[in-house]
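Our consortium's second objective concerns turning raw sequence data into structural hypotheses that experimental partners can test. To show how far this objective has progressed, the report includes one record in full. It was chosen at random from the queue rather than selected for favorable results. The single chain below, 427 residues long, was entered without modification.
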Amino acid sequence: MPDDTAKPAAPISRWRRRPNVSTPAPVVPRPARVAPVTVDDPNRPTAPWLLRAAAGWSWRLLAIGAAIYVLLLVVAQLKVIALALAAALLLTALIHPLFSWLHHRGLPRAGAAALTLLTLVLGLAAVVALVSGTTAAQLPELQSRVGTGIGQVRNWLATGPLHLDAVQLERVNTQISEQLTKNRTKLATGALSGAALALELLLGALLMLFTTFFLLFDGSDIWRWVVRLFSPSARPSVEGAGAVAWQTLTGYIRGTVLVALVDALCIGAGLLVVGVPLVAPLIVVTFLSAFIPIAGATLAGIAAILVALVSKGVVAALIVTGVVLFVQQIEGHILQPLVLGKSVRLHPLAIVFSITAGATLAGIPGAVVAVPLVAVISRVTVFLSRLRRDDEDEETATAEEPAAPVADDATAELANERREAAADQPR
């Protein structure tokens, strides 16, 4: 029999005690050093990204600059044609309302265009005749007053703080006479070049009138022909850009004419009140100078002040100066924002640079054409960039629109079977 007093066996532990024997870790041999193998990857860039970006922009800018330089060379060689075309566009934008009014009254397009041009030419001839007659009548009086003013200046030089004696003044007169004698050949050459310039201006004026007639008569067909030169996908953009350019051009030229007319009438009224001679020529100069922003009004004001100073004295010159400054403030703060509005959104620095570039390339006509050209380019660029942005937004919205679920053939067949089974069940 088993002994009940025997001790119970110890419970068998789940975990056996490991023997306290340290087993060394296996030694892994270190791999031998292998020299790196270089593989020439043709797609791997060999220069930093900043240098590559600078190089890419550099050759693009060089290409654009070369294209602009070649275009300017061509325009310089064909200066008469380019200026005549630009002047014809401005003139067409100005007188197109009269042409439309005559055409809507029943005149054919050719007759309306011819009558519009005839009205313009007769108006310009009347202005030239008025200015010439006034200048011829008042110029001798002005010359005598200029001589009197020069005498007063000589007396001031002799009796004023400079204390110049008669010998020194006579020496100055002698030097001026000698310079005129030496430069007589240059003056004659300048007269010949002036005659050539007059002939060039006459040819340009005839070409301008000829171009203006056909722009009035057949301008829409000419524009449609230009649009058809582009691909069908680009024609809507070209038509929209042309509409924006024409709207900008018409708004600029009509607003500028209105502002110039107000300036000329206000300054002319001030000159009449003061009693300054040559009022009609000064009014015409003020009107024409308004087509050169910033610089034109300043030059016209200086001319009016000088005429007042020579003819009426210092007090009259100061009064005319006040009138000119008052009219220019009204023009800059009221007339131009109200009349021109959004037609010309150019910074004054851009206006100054464009006028300088136009005057450097083509003289006064270039300065007149520069500002509307830059305004048209600016508005067309904004229109095209906005049109491209709208197209990209439309493409993005189309791509993000969830597609309609399309059932496969098995799902459609199962749905048909269920409908047939439901129809066979008795109600």
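The partners drew two points from this record. Residues 12-16 have pLDDT under 50 and may be disordered. The chain has two domains: 73-221, 228-391. Both points have been shared with the crystallography group to help prioritize constructs.
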